[in-house]
Amino acid sequence: MKIVKLLALVIFSLGTTFSFAQKNDLGAWYMYFGNNKISKKWNWHNEIQYRNFDAVGDLEQLLIRTGIGYDLTENNNNVLLGYGFILSQPYVNGEKTENIEHRIFQQYITKQQFGRFNLQHRYRLEERFLEDDFRMRFRYLLGVNIPINNKEMLPKTFYASAYNEIFLHFDSPVFDRNRVYGALGYVINKNMRIEAGYMNQLQENKNRGQVQIGFYNNIPFGKN
Questions:
Q1: Structural element, H or E, at residue 130
Q2: pLDDT value for 56
Q3: Checking CA distances to 57, which of 73, 87, 194, 221 falls within 20 to 30 Å?
């Protein structure tokens, strides 16, 4: 019953938000994240993000990422090598354009728990192969999940989620962008959860908001 109420609230909230999307230049991101155990130490990361300039229909970016990770300690301190395909359709002088990027990335994720606070640090290095350029970028994300109606992130738990992520170029200008995010999430079961939230991105001295819906799948392959 709780999950039905949550979904109803999300749909209502998004409907209200999207009715003003064009006026407020508010975008929407629909995201799927998979982190599936292959064995006790190895995992497969798979991710799809469908990003729109408005609620739906005006594609801003389609991002597909995948990678293989390895836990240095039990279920923590994960190192990963991955690949990303990014199709972007930005507006240039009022005209919609299209470009494709291939991206290789390496990342390290470490987790910490302090009471109800579940912290995650993610360090990511990206090699970006654009159509007419090559760039390197470093990203650092600090995120936290805080269960609300339980002390831990157990099934049927509502939780608050937040993160800040900074992007830095290896050349000038060094600062690329910064993202600040807040959301309400629900743990469906031990392997699945959903989130609905809002992210503000600062880039080129401009702020832009994004409504985000995310689904997380951690179903393992076989018995580990």
A1: none
A2: 78
A3: 194
CA distances from 125 to 6, 82, 213 (A): 36, 10, 25
Encoding tokens for residue 57?
């229909």
Joined tokens for residue 161 = 């989620």
Cα pseudo-dihedral 58, 203, 167, 158, rounded to 10: -60
Collect all residues with Cβ–Cβ distance below 8 Å to 108 and sequence separation of at least 6. 77, 78, 79, 80, 122, 123
pTM score: 0.88
**Helix, strand, coil abundance in the chain, percent, nearest 5:** 10, 65, 25
Distance (Å, whole) CA 196 – CA 1: 18
Map tokens 């006790």 to a residue. Answer: 40
43, with CB counted inside 10 A (0-12, 13-18, 19+), is: buried
Cβ-Cβ contacts under 8 Å for 93 (sequence gap 6 or more): none
Count the residues in the chain: 224
For 140-167, write each residue's pLDDT tens digit: 999 999 999 999 999 999 999 999 999 9
Q: For 17-76, how does the pLDDT look when each residue is reduced to its tens digit (9 = 90+)?
A: 444 433 447 899 999 999 999 999 999 999 999 999 987 789 999 999 999 999 999 999
H-helix or E-strand containing 4?
helix 2-18
Phi and psi, residue 23, nearest 5°: -65, -40
